[in-house]
Amino acid sequence: MKNNSNKQIFNRKKMLIISFSIILSVIFLFLTLFFVLKIDVKEIFSSIAQTFKEDFQFAAFLSFILFFYLVIKFLLFWIPYAIRLKKENIKLGFIDSFVFVLTSFFLVAVTPANFVSDPYATYFLKRKGVVQNRAVAITLLNAFLWHIVQMIITIPSFFIICTQYQEIINNTEIHVIFWFTIVGILIDFFILFWLLVFCYSLKTHYLLSLFLNKIKKIFKIAYHTKEEIKIKYIDEKKFKKIMNELLFDYKKTLLTILIYTINELYLYFLVFISLKFINIKIEFDVFKIFNITNVVFTANKFILTPGGEMSIEYFMQGFLKDKIISGIDTTNDILIDNSILIWRTFSMYIPAILGLIMMPIIIPKTFKKIKKT
Length: 373
What we know:
Elements: H1 12-36, H2 41-54, H3 56-87, H4 94-110, H5 117-127, H6 132-162, H7 165-170, H8 172-200, H9 202-218, H10 226-232, H11 236-247, H12 250-278, H13 286-299, H14 311-320, H15 323-326, H16 333-372
Helix pairs in contact: 2-3, 3-12, 3-16, 4-5, 4-16, 5-6, 6-8, 6-11, 6-12, 6-13, 8-13, 12-13, 12-16, 13-14, 14-16
């Protein structure tokens, strides 16, 4: 089966896979809400109403921070791509940007470990007129910089959590999560190493393409011949040159690092905001909550559930309910569960739902192009 240069990312086979992922995501969400967090909707609204009653201005401020994160999340995802496209003399319109970002959020939510969102970003860049080598290079570089930021932020939090190792080993549940975190950090190092090798090694490109072709043959997906792969990667020096050009464009690279840092910090501090939003009376240690959130994200790296659903809530729950590690002095477990739900609602569920709304817009356009070709 020969490769079709006009193939689209949302063909019928892939839509079946995405549909299955959506069903799987709904199942995991159901299990999370009713078996992990044991959510009481009435209790959530009652707690929020009490917060507004206690201090309306502060509650309104917390609400603003939660909703403003949706705007920040959108902008901070879009800007690293927009600044690279500017150099390609390609301007993204508002509608294109809106569809791209929200569709990416949806794909992150329904697939494990960002398996689809990065290929979709490459596809989108190519569709806007970026040549394939540059589209792949931009996506890889953004992924590489994002992992660097995560490592820089995560390692200090991990060592701070390690200072309470005696408490960790006394709590079997947290002890398991702690070892998951170590594995997650090792995975981060491996991903960074792999991205570097993939960006600069011709042999890696060639062998990976051969491997992917075998997979495509099994599933009867369009693939390249062995001769085509050889020709495709003969000009590896050109790809290296593109990567170096993008990486050593210091202003854009440093801006991208700053953007990813702001996004990660905002996301991790959002747990503290969610806890405060549910119960304004209880004092929380903002830095302890931040370190816990950071470590939990790392521990969740290799849990292959859609969007990290169920596992990330379970890990967060385990840490927050330990009074010594979290510093939360309350016996009200419902408070913690409800706070985790609010955090996930703004950081994952709302962006995913908005992205799902975009799918009926982008899919018909894709199928029209398939019919034309």
